[in-house]
Amino acid sequence: MPLTLRRRPRLPATEPLVATPSPSPVVEERPAPTDPEPARPAPTARGSAAGRASARPRRRAHDTWRDRMLGEVFFFLLGLGVWLSNAIFTVLGVTAPVGLTPLTGLVGFVFHLLLSRAELYLWHRWRDPWYLLLLVGCVLVDAGTTLVGLLPLATKWFPMLVGKTPQNVLDWGQILAALVSNTTVPAWWPNALLLLAITFAFALGSERLLRKFYRGMIETWQERPA
Q1: Quick check: 217 and 73 in contact, CB under 8 A?
Q2: How deeply is 122 buried, as exposed, middle or buried, from its count of CB atoms within 10 A (0-12, 13-18, 19+)?
């Protein structure tokens, strides 16, 4: 290799490697943990049963199951008597235009039975206008037929209760006519109002009273000793 006087080119000076500090991680400040709220125990079947038991009236220590059962049967028979009385009034009112016969009496009793089932179990649909209209109609028909059937019996057995109230319910419109025309109201209007209150009590309360006492009797029967 021939020798030359040329200088080799200098390599560019390199900067010394300096270690760059890595960025320190950002530590997120979190709030100090607080004591968690103690969880409420979930209600169990035993707890709910105990709540229902505490809601019932306490029995005395000497109250035997037989005594309680006799009382429940007595109350049930009272409710049944009120319901049957309402049924008789309704049958008499339904059959008043055509007369009471075995066939019309059976039709009137079936009508009362269906009417009472509708009044007792369909009120949860009152938001539907058709159901509400029919339910109000059932109550008015029940009360009207009960009133027509009650008047003759009340006149015979409780004349002081009826007084001089007209036997024809349509004549009771004289009270409304007197109120509208601002004239003298008939003197028998308190008797009519009392009879109307008794009628609605029979029409609206007899089924509910019978169901209440029936449930009480069944509940006591299920508590019979083994």
Answers
A1: yes
A2: middle
Q: Give the span between the Cα atoms of 154 and 161, in whole angstroms.
A: 7
* pLDDT tens readout for residues 1-53: 455 555 555 555 554 544 555 555 555 555 555 554 545 545 454 444 455 54
Separation CA 42–CA 45 (nearest Å): 10
d(CA 102, CA 207): 24
Q: Is the pTM of this model over 0.90?
A: no
Band (192; pLDDT cuts 50, 70, 90): very high
Which pair of structure tokens corresponds to residue 169? 């319910």
Question: How deeply is 209 buried, as exposed, middle or buried, from its count of CB atoms within 10 A (0-12, 13-18, 19+)?
Answer: buried
Q: Which long-range contacts (CB under 8 A, 24 or more apart) does 208-214 make?
A: 208/120, 209/79, 209/82, 209/83, 210/76, 210/79, 210/80, 210/82, 210/83, 211/120, 212/79, 213/72, 213/75, 213/76, 213/78, 213/79, 214/76, 214/79
Instruction: Please state the φ and ψ torsions of residue 195, each to the nearest 5 degrees.
Output: -65, -40
